[in-house]
Amino acid sequence: MWTAILVFTLLALVLGLLLGFAGQAFKVEGDPLADKIDALLPQTQCGQCGYPGCRPYAEAIARGEADINQCPPGGEATIKALADLLGVEPKPLSAEHGVEKPKTVAWIDEQVCIGCTLCIQACPVDAIVGAPKLMHTVIVDECTGCELCVAPCPVDCIYMLPLQAQLEQWRWPSPEERVEIAEAPVPHVSEGRTQALPERGDVA
Amino acid sequence: MTEFLLIFVSTVLVNNFVLVKFLGLCPLMGVSRKLETAMGMGLATTFVLTLSSVLSHLAQNYLLEPFGLEYLRTIAFIVLIAAVVNFTEMALKKASPVLHNVLGIYLPLITTNCAVLGVALLNVQEEHNLAQAAVYGFGAAVGFSLVLVLFAAMRERLAAADVPKPFQGTPIGLVTAGLMALAFMGFAGLVKV
After folding, report:
1. pLDDT at res. A175
2. Per-residue pLDDT tens for A95-137?
3. B86 at the A interface (CB within 8 A)?
4. Neighbouring-strand partners of residue A162
5. Which of A176, B35, B87, B184 would staple B19 via disulfide (CB 3.0–4.6 Å)?
6. Longest Cα pair distance anywhere in chain B, in angstroms?
7. Which residues of B touch A18 (CB under 8 A)?
């Protein structure tokens, strides 16, 4: 048995080394500009820009086919960063592609969910777990807030909720935001999930 | 020399892997929609098949037999084939990105092309030596490519043909493949191995 393990380890090692060297030798340089642009995009993969994802949008910008103001999830910050990178003037977000909203995550009302898996198929980042006829739920850390799962849901049990501030990502709100927060109470997403549940007593 | 020629002709025509041994039917149905892709797939498979045939022969004789590990033959061959396919994909991506895009998922799927593993195992079964194994692998690949290209050409014509509704798409493709297999049976008496 030990010979077998040894021989196969050796085989795998040799093949791995060969492939590693081949990988270096045949390395394909991607478009460096598209890489840089892609790094600035929010990676929500929501498709609001009109391209199937952030990477295709980045490539379109690099080719000069797309404008820099088509990314609503990134909002002003992304437009400014892209303008800096490309050396062009920043411009306001294009209205036909959507409006900038505070960062939200999807949340599934598990009492109402019928387990149809339609939202799982719609999710571009596989942030929804579940199985046919079993309830689904959203992995908050993976959700990009793209809202693509909201439309397919036949029972409308998916809500977009503002992300509750965590220690790691909390920052001082800018003055405008502070006014909004003072006026509108923010529902919670994690831990006390049920608190954020809109009143639907008749369904439960 | 005659011996190699015999092996070559017999694998390409008489014992064709696709139409007589029925190995590697997945790419036959999958990549035969267009003639160019079929040619590209044929070339990639030829490379993989010849190389993996030689490598698996070496592994069998210098790695598995000396240590008495013949019972692990299948796993060892699959590991080798996977590595060769990976290598081919990297090389192809560098050499011809267009072809790499066109072949798409079928390129990594050469790994699971049973013709590749079939050639490696049949080499052992028929106790070929190194040169014979190389010719056998190359012949199998040429036979595979020949059938793939012929079949793709036929399917391109079928696409424009007036096929009855229940037969459209894959069914008429399978019927065509069956007729081709019948035609290849005509080669049966050509070589006596």
Report:
1. 58
2. 788 777 777 888 898 888 999 999 999 888 899 999 998 889 9
3. yes
4. A104
5. B184
6. 60
7. 83, 87
